[in-house]
Write a structure and sequence with these properties.
- The complex is a heterodimer.
- Chain A is mainly alpha-helical.
- Chain A is built from 10 helices and 2 strands, in the order ααααββαααααα.
- In chain A, α1 runs antiparallel to α7 (188-210).
- The model of chain A has no long low-confidence stretch (mean pLDDT 86).
- The two termini of chain B are 36 Å apart.
- Chain B has helices at 10-13, 23-39, 44-71, 79-94, 100-122, 127-146, 174-197, 199-209, 211-216, 221-247, 257-270, 276-295, 300-313, 317-325, 327-330; strands at residues 157-158, 249-250.
- Chain B has a two-stranded antiparallel sheet with strand order 1-2.
- Chain B is globular and about 55 Å long.
- Chain B has a single domain (20-32, 50-330), classed as ABC transporter involved in vitamin B12 uptake, BtuC (Orthogonal Bundle).
- The longest helix of chain B has 28 residues, at 44-71.
- The chains are: A mainly alpha, B mainly alpha.
- At the A-B interface, α4, α8 and α10 of A face α6, α11 and α13 of B.
């Protein structure tokens, strides 16, 4: 275990963390403000990546593809809201689960149908290719740093939006008590649509940014969706601050756990069982963390509901 | 609002029907009992294994409906119990124990123990937090199974042969095995019915509708929920025991969160809080999947929108639909 590896893995953990934050932020707001469980949030992340690949193939320019894919993802999200979700607000949570599960099935198959089952790739934009020297002997890819920086920038933007603007005030009020906000004369449908559209765009943005690192394939949204749910539950539903802290925590714990679990276990165990137990323990580390957090704080770390 | 207990759906809020409600279960079980007779005229082994599979999952779905429909305890980790039951069979078989009278009690005990240990933690939380913490324990079971290198790890474990019953290889007979599953499903159904209508069940249901009132009446709601959770876990273990014997294979995939999600969909599709709905929903889900996947490779593009339309236009699942069609008759 060397310092170099520790630094690189910490950065990787941060990168996973900001990615999770981009997805979890929309999820926690939609959940907190609209009381709507949107399992289809993960496929919107996948769709962002696919759209970016498509627009890149058309234009050959990453930034143009980024903008087009964001707008297309937004349009698609609003269409889903208009066609399906809007009719489900206020219904039983289980109705949300089954309807959005249906959308996951459909979209996972639809991208396979349109773009084929083989994984696609998106090249890293030219100005961000290559690696930088962090310390003598430690190289780190520029694009991952760009992801971290843009994620942090979005977090800052969200913080300003939510805590300093009028619409942010309404969102916070909505997360605390939506019926009261509606009773005070705010057009709650419009607020829902803005929150939903924004969440969709953030998920799409995450998909686009990660596309050059991961392969773009059907079902890529499913695993990340579960992680995002873990994040918003640990952070407390409806809380952006909670989502941010929990996302970084999960990103770091997961990445560092996977890289060092075997080494740490070998301090107490024989090498052979350590190699068997290590990876399993690393995979379940975040779920252990979630169970622990919920045992001591059954509403997450920063519950938004003022009850 | 998210922390509050889930609101009741229309079907769940209805009082249980007493006598008029008998027609539907008699019809359901009659159809399942007749399958082997009719299967003689078709591809028998295929039909028996397909419908057997439906019944195996229906057993787990019944237990899940007990939790979801009568206690608002939406468990997103129910597949873990199936997996634990299945692994009990697989691991015992690997060590040469192939007697059902040993492996079934072990499967039940192991899944009940897991339910008891995790229930102590899970039942502290409510609503969506409960969903997520059950998911967490389900995932832990999944990753534990994946790391069981001596028992196949990720690849799973092939079982040499089906369990014997009192030393006789009765389960190898497909028709006998079918009726064994049928008996287990009938037993589970009757048990769940009895629980729901018992004093225990009334407290459990009362706690879903108003926890504070139940607590004020002097019931320790937590203990009732824990008991129900352990019962549901043990039933899931039985389902796993049957599944391992049916497929002669166990794998961590039995415990994946997708499987838990599918079980929930089956229950909701049928209509929660009806028990009949759990069986009908499971059959509808698995048979529709079988039929559509035979039609086209892209069957999920039909199945997905079907689920969405179901939710938009059919409240209360298939049972809700049946109630609306036969509504005037089924209410005594």
């Amino acid at each position: 275990m060397s310092t170099a590896l520790l630094i690189v893995q910490t950065l990787n953990g941060l990168q996973l963390g900001v990615l999770l934050f981009l997805i979890a932020a929309g999820l926690t707001l939609v959940f907190g403000v609209m009381d709507f469980i949107n399992l289809a949030h993960g496929v919107q992340y996948m769709l962002g990546a696919y759209l970016a690949v498509m627009f890149y193939a058309l234009t050959g320019n990453f930034f143009f593809a980024l903008v087009c894919a964001l707008l297309a993802a937004l349009a698609f999200g609003l269409m889903l809201e208009f066609l399906v979700f809007r009719h489900l607000y206020g219904r039983h949570h289980l109705d949300h689960v089954i309807a959005t599960f249906g959308i996951i099935l459909f979209l996972n198959q639809a991208v396979k149908f349109v773009w084929g089952p083989a994984p696609l790739t998106l090249p890293v934009p030219e100005m961000f290719t290559g690696s930088v020297v962090l310390m003598p002997g430690i190289l780190y890819p520029v694009w991952r740093l760009v992801i971290i920086a843009s994620g942090l920038a979005v977090a800052l933007l969200l913080y300003i939006l939510v805590s300093r603007t009028r619409i942010g005030m309404l969102v916070r009020a909505g997360a605390t008590n939506a019926p009261m906000v509606s009773a005070l004369g705010v057009d709650i449908r419009k607020l829902f649509m803005i929150v939903f559209g924004f969440g969709t765009m953030l998920a799409g943005f995450a998909g686009i940014m990660i596309a050059p690192i991961l392969s773009v394939e059907p079902g890529m949204g499913d695993t990340i969706l579960i992680l995002a749910f873990v994040v918003i539950v640990i952070g407390g539903i409806g809380s952006i601050r909670g989502a941010f802290i929990a996302a970084l925590l999960i990103g770091l714990v997961d990445t560092l756990g996977r890289s060092f679990a075997v080494d740490i276990l070998r301090l107490f165990m024989a090498p052979s069982p350590a190699r068997t137990v290590g990876p399993a323990l690393a995979s379940m580390l975040i779920y252990l963390l979630m169970a622990l957090v919920l045992y001591f704080r059954p509403s997450g770390l920063f519950p938004a509901k003022g009850r | 609002m998210a922390q509050a207990t889930l609101p009741l759906s229309e079907t769940a809020a209805k009082p249980p029907r007493r006598y008029a409600g008998l027609a539907v279960p008699i019809l359901i079980f009659g159809v399942f009992a007749m399958v082997p007779v009719l299967a003689q005229f078709g591809t028998e082994s295929f039909l028996l294994s397909l419908v057997g599979r439906v019944m195996i999952f229906a057993i787990a779905a019944l237990a899940l409906d007990l939790l979801v429909g009568y206690g608002a305890l939406v468990s997103f980790g129910h597949a873990a119990f199936i997996g634990i039951g299945a692994y009990a069979v697989g691991i015992l078989s690997k060590h040469g124990v192939e007697e059902a009278m040993i492996s079934l009690p072990v499967a039940l005990a192991a899944s009940a123990l897991f339910a008891w240990l995790t229930g102590i933690v899970c039942l502290r939380t409510r609503g969506v937090y409960f969903i997520m913490i059950t998911l967490a324990f389900g995932q832990m079971a999944f990753f534990t199974a994946s790391s069981l290198a001596p028992y196949g790890g990720d690849d799973g474990l092939t079982i040499a042969s089906r369990n014997t019953l009192f030393g006789v290889p009765l389960l190898e007979n497909d028709r006998f095995f079918y009726y064994l599953i049928f008996t287990c499903m009938l037993g589970t159904y009757l048990l769940c019915r009895a629980i729901v209508n018992s004093r225990f069940g009334r407290v459990f249901r009362g706690a879903m509708e108003n926890e504070t009132r139940m607590a004020t009446l002097g019931f320790e709601v937590y203990r009732f929920r824990l008991a129900a959770y352990v019962i549901a876990g043990a039933i899931g273990g039985m389902s796993g025991f049957l599944l391992a014997n049916a497929t002669e294979f166990v794998s961590p995939a039995y415990m994946s969160w997708q499987r838990s999600g599918e079980l929930l969909i089956m229950v909701i599709l049928g209509g929660i809080g009806t028990l009949n709905g759990a069986i009908v929903g499971t059959a509808a889900f698995l048979l529709l999947e079988e039929w559509l996947s035979g039609l086209t490779e892209h069957w999920k593009m039909i199945f997905g929108p079907f689920l969405v339309l179901m939710v938009l236009f059919l409240r209360g699942g298939l049972s809700g639909l049946a109630d609306r069609i036969f509504g005037s008759r089924s209410r005594d």
